[in-house]
Design goal:
By secondary structure, the chain is mainly β. The chain contains 2 helices and 18 strands.
Length: 257
């Protein structure tokens, strides 16, 4: 079988993936005596952990960004929510060890909702599939992963021909080769080939995708200490509203600085 050409790997960028849960209304908060070490958004008397479920990429976010590599995080529906930093809230860190001298805020671009898979162009022009058996191209827990796991013996043999009656082509793919224009929560008929055998399966648009913006990164280097067992992180003045991946610990939505 000819080697598949992965278009979404750019010349100086490697796309790494993590998978977690869907953004909601901050989920259920935790009380102070329930906290373990880690970052939280404090709102009132409740604490909300950063979203970091199912991270699958290897390495350190800061080192990877410094090397010019772009990261991707995708979130499937369910589980806890991405906490929101808004007026009156605080980003706090509970930790028994010495606090880090710097906390990195990596800006993330919201790429929207799609099926939980990253496509790759094969050696045949305008034919798309998955690259080998690399399960990192399927979001764990997503409808796409569940359906394809039962539909085929090997991902290497899969070709995705159409989604929702639309032929898969570069015109309908994002810059990270996810299918665009889908309605969140809707089920779509997906035409797939396993070798020469065709079948139609149904997948749900249940995966939200975030891609890092390497040139936008802020650093916090000050804390406000409390007697409650945590320290408040003083956010950088230049921090603008948006999604951020915090110090390789999880995802946060900033709406107010």
């Amino acid at each position: 079988m000819k080697k598949m050409i992965v278009l979404w790997l750019l010349a100086a960028a490697v796309l790494l993936t993590g998978c977690g849960s869907w953004r909601g209304d901050s989920g259920e908060g935790m009380a102070l005596d329930e906290l373990t070490d880690g970052f939280y958004v404090k709102s009132g008397n409740l604490f909300y952990p950063l979203e970091a479920e199912g991270k699958t990429y290897d390495g350190d976010m800061v080192k990877l960004t410094n090397a010019g590599k772009s990261q991707m995080i995708w979130l499937w529906e369910g589980g806890s929510a991405i906490p929101e930093y808004k007026e009156g809230a605080a980003l706090v860190l509970k930790q028994h060890q010495a606090l880090p001298e710097q906390v990195f805020f990596q800006k993330m671009e919201d790429k929207g909702v799609t099926l939980g898979m990253i496509l790759a162009q094969t050696a045949t022009l305008d034919v798309y599939g998955l690259s080998g058996d690399d399960r990192r191209r399927l979001c764990p827990g997503s409808s796409a992963e569940e359906v394809l796991a039962s539909a085929a013996e090997s991902y290497q043999d899969l070709r995705i021909s159409e989604i929702g009656g639309v032929k898969v082509s570069q015109e309908h793919l994002s810059d990270i080769n996810t299918f665009e224009g889908l309605t969140p929560g809707e089920d779509y008929a997906v035409g797939i080939y396993e070798g020469s055998v065709y079948q139609e399966v149904y997948m749900r648009a249940d995966t939200r995708v975030f891609k890092s913006v390497p040139e936008v990164r802020c650093i916090a280097d000050q804390y406000r200490y409390t007697r409650e067992g945590y320290a408040e992180v003083v956010l950088p003045e230049e921090l603008e509203p948006g999604y951020y991946y915090i110090d390789d610990a999880g995802l946060l939505l900033v709406t107010k600085n």
